[in-house]
Design a protein that fits this description.
In chain A, 52% of the residues lie in helices and 12% in strands. Chain A has 11 helices and 6 strands. Chain B is an all-alpha fold and 209 residues long. In chain B, 80% of the residues lie in helices and 2% in strands. Chain B is extended. Classes of the chains: A alpha/beta (275), B mainly alpha (209).
């Protein structure tokens, strides 16, 4: 077997070993490669920065543990930003059943900067029904969520007295891993109520979501862990997004190196065969 | 009647929801929006019941796997044990209780994240084997994937500062055109399926062809 044929048939365990090593090393010894902030991520940051006092922001936790490592840092970064902004009201909601646990984890660990539960932010929890639930939420928040996640009647929460439907929402941000997610929000809330809409996505679903950006239905998006890292950089905070970026770079290098090796070997092998 | 009643319900409910989306119709205190909202609330209740039904169905299927000692029956046993424990703790102490959180963040999150992360290994191995410049089409795919991957990682900018710009162009033009076509095609398909369901031509949702 020639060297080219060997390079064409590298054992998958060797591929796995290289990838494992190149992901682990930068996690253990971070390098801190410079990161350019994409216009899509910056758009969310700038929009929140410009929100006037009294604005109501809905953050929807539509992901599960499988995308936790990629999306939880996005949610943490956005929630940090919202908590820092004085006078902003935050509604946490979920259309994925595991979303409320993610939201509570953030509320437990985040600095609320003096914001009080019920007055400045509320956690409504999960409602089943996917797209229909989104539509019902947009039409009548109080009817869809008679009690919040912590079992308080929604009418007892001072903040919710004047917030009745999507017409009262200034900004909607969904941390969405799949369906229901961006298309459903665009159909049921952004379109009919003209609510400005942005999302945090797993990197793999960014290409399919781009048409919603270009059409103007979304004004910003965070793409995978990189989106989270960019947002953390804008906030000057060191979070899990920034920590993971070197590992992302190195893992991409490994994949590209193996693709390159395979193609050089493939072409050399074909040339040799032609002779 | 067993067939006609569900078809009539589907038609009436469908027409109300569609009309409410496009028009604001109302007489006195009664408006189409109120009726539509009520129907949507019923849907939420049915969806909540469906979750319970799914749990019962899961138990039924996996109990049968264990009883009949089907291949991999021990996986079914693990599923039932963890499902019963999580449900018991969740129902008795709430999903915000320390014990539930302990199980959730200590077991479910790492296991789920690990399984998802394993994809990276499979994708690397698959990319190594599949991305080969066999013909013009494959070469275009290969080059595009190469550039987009570089553009998505910070290291790409160090190698060539314009990589993010090229990646953005690839995402905004060729990708966008293809994705938009897929989205419009799926929307037209959904529209035609919706119409067929509404007028009773499509009945598979009733459990018959």
């Amino acid at each position: 077997m020639s060297i080219w044929q060997r390079l064409l048939n590298i054992d998958r365990r060797i591929v796995y070993l290289f990838l494992f090593a190149f992901i682990s090393l930068p996690l253990l010894v971070p390098i801190g490669l410079p990161l350019t902030i994409s216009p899509e991520t910056r758009a969310i940051y700038d929009y929140i920065e410009k929100l006037p006092e009294g604005s109501v922001v809905v953050v929807s936790f539509d992901y599960s543990p499988s995308s936790y490592s990629e999306q939880h840092p996005q949610a943490v970064a956005v929630m940090n930003h919202l908590m820092r902004k004085p006078g902003i009201k935050i509604i946490l909601v979920a259309f994925w059943e595991q979303g409320p646990i993610m939201a509570e984890e953030i509320l437990r660990t985040i600095d609320t900067h003096g914001k009080e539960y019920g007055k400045d932010f509320v956690h409504l929890g999960y409602v089943a029904g996917g797209e229909t639930a989104m539509s019902a939420f947009a039409a009548d928040i109080h009817k869809t969520f008679p009690v919040d996640y912590r079992k308080n009647p929604i009418d007892s929460l001072p903040m919710m007295a004047d917030i009745r439907s999507a017409k009262d929402i200034s900004l909607l941000i969904s941390i969405a891993a799949g369906s229901p997610g961006v298309p459903e929000f665009a159909r049921q809330i952004q379109g009919p109520y003209k609510v400005p809409f942005a999302a945090g996505l797993v990197a793999i679903s960014v290409p399919i979501t781009m048409p919603y950006m270009q059409s103007g239905q979304m004004f910003g998006l965070m793409a995978g862990l990189r989106g989270a890292a960019e947002y953390e950089q804008l906030l000057n905070m060191k979070g899990k997004g920034s920590i993971g970026m070197d590992a992302i770079s190195f893992s991409h290098i490994v994949v590209l190196a193996f693709i390159l090796i395979a193609n050089v070997a493939y072409l050399a092998n074909r040339k040799g065969g032609a002779k | 009647m067993k067939r006609e009643i569900p078809l009539v319900i589907t038609f009436v409910v469908g027409v109300i929801i569609i009309l409410d989306y496009f028009f604001k119709i109302g007489i006195g205190t009664l408006s189409l929006a109120t009726v539509s909202m009520e129907i949507q609330n019923w849907t939420l209740i049915i969806a909540a019941f469906a979750l319970g039904l799914a749990a019962v169905n899961l138990l039924r299927i996996h109990s049968a796997n264990i009883r009949l000692k089907r291949p991999g029956w021990y996986n079914s046993l693990a599923l039932i044990i963890t499902m019963v424990i999580m449900s018991f703790v969740g129902i008795t102490q709430g999903t915000n209780s320390p014990l539930y959180r302990y199980w959730y963040t200590g077991f479910l999150v790492p296991v789920d994240a690990t399984i998802f992360s394993l994809l990276a290994f499979y994708i690397t191995s698959a990319a190594y084997r599949a991305f080969r410049a066999r013909n013009v089409d494959a070469t275009i795919l290969l080059v595009t994937a190469f550039v987009v991957m570089l553009g998505r990682a910070p290291v790409g900018e160090l190698i060539w500062k314009d990589v993010p710009r090229v990646t953005k162009w690839l995402m905004d033009y060729p990708n966008m055109a293809g994705q938009r076509g897929i989205i419009i095609g799926a929307a037209v398909g959904a529209l035609s399926l919706g119409l067929r369901i509404l007028i009773g031509l499509e009945r598979s949702y009733l459990g018959q062809d």
